[in-house]
Amino acid sequence: MSYHSPQRIAEITMETGTRKANLPLLTILILGFVAGAFISFGYLLDIRVTGNLPKEWGSFSSFLGAAVFPIGLMLVVIAGGELLTGNMMSVTLAMFAGRVSFGLLLKNWFWVTVSNLAGAVFVAYFFGHVAGLITKEPFLTKTLALADGKLHESFVQAFWSGIGCNWLVALGVWLSYAAEDVGGKILGIWFPIMAFVAIGFQHVVANMFIIPAAIFAGHATWGDWFSNFVPVFLGNAVGGGIFVAFLYYIAYIKGTEQSKLRASAARKETTKLIMHRQLKNK
């Protein structure tokens, strides 16, 4: 398996973020819709796998759900998609590097959020509700329990849970950039995503599926969803934008640029000394 160094991953991320920020609006809307749907497929798979497992299995049931959930991000990265939490890392790093303006970043985040929501709600309604995949027991009970777990956290709890989530999700995207082959990308994605789901962190796009699924079942309201959306969105932004994009920008982009400048200055000074000695010898 070919592998890129962290330095090269930072450069790839910067280039990817720049490209994403400059995509045509129609492309963003299409790829954002499918990304929201892909993440929802992962959540739906989680529910269908774990919904009728015995309670005696305890946390192992959570692990099994977490083990299948990463299919969502695999589809986004490999098949193609614009996912808000990934863009919170890649486009932000491009902004720190001066490749993307703050206004362009906000525009990208806005349209990706809207299209991710459309894709997630589409899956929640048509596959979860109309097709009945989560309206029958025991899958309905599992769905409502998952939604309640998200909604019952306080603002502060949801915010910090969002930070932990996108720290790991953004690292999953980061690791996928390390590999050039599909197998390497799958491995890079699977471990961080499995970890965030098993831990129970909150993902803003995943919540765009699970909470509306509970709404369609008459168990919650759109006001409940929005009250959860705000802290989780902010937490995800900090997790991906600060704990991954900013820290790695300082370490691998800005730090490298400063090293290059110092090395260039040192070479110039060395050249001057050599020339000065040669003149003296003459």
From TrEMBL:
Membrane-topology descriptor: Multi-pass membrane protein
For molecular function, the Gene Ontology terms on record are: formate transmembrane transporter activity
Taxonomy, top ranks, is: Bacteria, Bacillati, Bacillota, Bacilli, Bacillales
Among its keywords, does the record have Transmembrane?
A: yes
Q: Give the UniProt subcellular location, in the record's own words.
A: Membrane
Q: Which residues cross the membrane?
A: 23-45, 57-78, 84-102, 109-134, 154-177, 189-217, 229-252
Listed name of the protein = Formate/nitrite transporter family protein
Q: Which UniProt keywords apply?
A: Membrane, Transmembrane, Transmembrane helix, Transport
4Fe-4S keyword on record: no
Where primarily located?
membrane
GO CC term, one of those recorded: plasma membrane
